[in-house]
UniProtKB/TrEMBL annotation:
Protein name, entry field: RING-type E3 ubiquitin transferase
EC class name: transferase
Record keywords: Metal-binding, Transferase, Ubl conjugation pathway, Zinc, Zinc-finger
Gene Ontology MF, one: ubiquitin protein ligase activity
Length: 331
């Protein structure tokens, strides 16, 4: 069920109520399939639609959604875990009681039962998530919308999930005479590409898992050209730790500069860079500077110039639980 916002700031949420509804409910409820109960591990569960003032689900101090563990003073004033840890002498911010903050397990259970559909369901996500986890889910959702690479230069306003974006690029941005806009690559194998002033990017798609990548030209300075490669997906934190590495080799006489373990090989101006592939939702159609590793060229690309690239992408094998451990790692 979608959450629906009204002009009064009230959102419509789904609540799973173990053992039925108890206590006085002041919000208007509509029973779904009234009278029908589903047995779950010996207990009974029914679902209701409920309207809740959304601010009631947020910490009164930081205004972020309340999520377990939740603390309250003896008078019932709430604080999230982060804010309660900042209270001097465990003193309530409202009633000034000291040493009285403790866990509220009943409220924690209730908040876990308040569930919404992902706000990106229009882009293909079918997840139903606890409201208190919705912010983290949005930042890592595999269906989070990404912009078209032609947004900045070509004015294309398309926005969609990575699979939707892949279909859009194949249908709308093929350039006859400059090679395909979408190139299928095999992990662990090299692929040769060409970039020009007219064809400044290619979309790459992994044959094994259909992951979408963008290799593109940019101009970090007025007299420089840079080549970057990113994985096109949500880049907000949890679940977005690096999953791929890339070896990028650029054939250009006199090339130099760059970052991320770049080295110049013998044999005619080949510049090589190896790096962990970062993620970007392509805000504005290109990855932000802090979302990419780039190979910088200390010269401006002229009309008619062609940059020949060799790209090899490898998948990282992560141990179980590595994604959770890498939540704080920007990619």
């Amino acid at each position: 069920m979608m959450e629906q916002a009204s002009s009064s700031g009230v959102k419509k949420l789904r609540v799973d109520v173990p053992g039925g509804v108890s206590g006085e409910v002041k919000k208007k409820m509509k029973m779904e399939e009234a009278g029908k109960l589903a047995a779950v591990d010996g207990a009974t569960t029914e679902e209701v639609d409920v309207k809740i003032i959304i601010s009631k689900l947020h910490c009164p101090l930081c205004s972020f959604p309340l999520k377990p563990p939740i603390f309250q003073c003896d008078a019932g004033h709430l604080a999230c875990s982060a804010c309660s840890g900042l209270l001097f002498d465990n003193r309530c911010y409202d009633c000034d009681c000291t040493g009285s903050y403790g866990r509220n397990p009943a409220l924690e259970d209730l908040l876990r039962s308040i569930r919404i559909t992902c706000p990106y369901d229009a882009y293909g996500c079918r997840a139903t998530i606890a409201y208190c986890d919705s912010r983290d889910h949005r930042r890592a959702c595999p269906c989070a919308p990404c912009s078209c690479p032609e947004r900045e230069r070509g004015g294309c306003r398309f926005v969609g999930s990575p699979p939707m974006l892949l279909d859009h690029i194949a249908a709308a941005h093929e350039h006859p005479g400059s090679g395909p806009a979408v190139v299928v690559v095999r992990y662990g194998q090299e692929s040769r590409l060409a970039l020009t002033a007219a064809r400044r990017w290619h979309a790459l798609v992994g044959e094994e898992d259909r992951a979408l990548f963008l290799v593109s030209l940019s101009a970090p300075c007025s007299d420089d050209t840079a080549v970057s490669l990113v994985c096109v997906r949500a880049n907000g934190g949890g679940g977005t730790a690096a999953r791929y590495t890339c070896k990028l080799a650029l054939e250009l006489p006199g090339a130099g500069g760059g970052e991320e373990e770049e080295e110049e090989e013998d044999g005619g101006g080949v510049v090589v860079m190896e790096f962990k592939v970062r993620s970007s939702a392509l805000p504005g159609g290109t990855p932000a500077m802090d979302q990419r590793a780039f190979l910088g060229l200390h010269q401006k690309l002229q009309p008619g110039d062609t940059l020949t690239l060799t790209v090899r992408i490898d998948r990282l094998i992560q141990p179980v639980g590595a994604a959770a451990a890498g939540e704080s790692t920007a990619t």
